Amino acid sequence: MFRLTVSTLDDDFVPPLQSALERAGLQVVRFTPAEGVEPDPAAAPDVLLLDWRAIMPVNKPAEVLAWPDAMRLAALKPSDTRLLGPTQELDDFVLAPVHDEELVARVQLVLWRHGRALTRNTLEAGDLVVDTSNYQVFEGGRSVSLTFKEFELLRFLMTHNQQVFTRETLLNRVWGYNYYGGSRTVDVHIRRLRSKLEAGGQRYVETVRNVGYRFALPLR
């Protein structure tokens, strides 16, 4: 799985794009540029998406210096394209407001230019195999029938395996920001997932008391 780090100061920049990027097989991480905050070189992304408003005052932002091998995309307003030049060392750019499908296409193009591709179509952990292209799930070799939202919830948790998410976050990320149902919706879908996946005794989805849920196993 490729890692895409988004460097932005805008809290509203990432959420509308994240689901589409994750569905395409990218792990999305946000980095907030701030004075005195240095990026961890060990956390280098494959692709770095720069929110141009955050980096315009800086010729070589810290995240570019820390991750020199990352492929670089910039999101900028049409009026800012005149400022682009060889000193920015960008692989490509997208115009704001950024649309998720275009961004995914640009990321795929940049990866392809560098001899890489978003080719992973399966998620595997323990005896569980999820085919994200064909919406198929297998546990212990048997086919498991899931509803669309059950599948999307499972895929989201596996993509962020071992990370804990509140019910509210899961509602926003899987059902969408315009969904007005209560957090019980998440509990119901988790219970159904467990009944379908964990009949053999393997625990895949773990409850973190007073917090929420996480996918318990590392991916293979």
Descriptive account of the structure:
The chain has helices at residues 15-23, 52-55, 62-66, 100-113, 148-159, 167-175, 184-197; strands at residues 2-7, 26-31, 47-51, 71-76, 92-95, 122-125, 128-131, 136-139, 142-144, 165-166, 205-208, 212-215. With 220 residues, the protein is an alpha/beta fold. The protein has 2 domains: 2-113, Rossmann fold (3-Layer(aba) Sandwich), CATH 3.40.50.2300; 122-215, Orthogonal Bundle (Arc Repressor Mutant, subunit A), CATH 1.10.10.10. The strands form 3 sheets. It has a 5-stranded parallel beta sheet. A 4-stranded antiparallel beta sheet has the order 6-7-8-9, with helices on one face. A hairpin with a 2-residue loop joins strand 8 (136-139) and strand 9. Helix 1 (15-23) packs across helix 4 (100-113), helix 5 crosses helix 6 (167-175) and helix 5 (148-159) crosses helix 7 (184-197). 27% of the residues are buried. The mean pLDDT is 85.
